[in-house]
Write a structure and sequence with these properties.
The chain has one helix at 2-27. The chain is mostly helical.
Length: 28
């Protein structure tokens, strides 16, 4: 379970910046 939780946290962390990066570039 601990490994699965880390995987989910890593997936969310990777998705968050990936979604914010393009959004910031579009506004700038």
């Amino acid at each position: 379970m601990a490994k699965k939780k880390t995987s989910t946290k890593k997936k969310i962390a990777k998705k968050a910046p990936a979604k914010k990066a393009p959004a910031k570039k579009g506004t700038k």
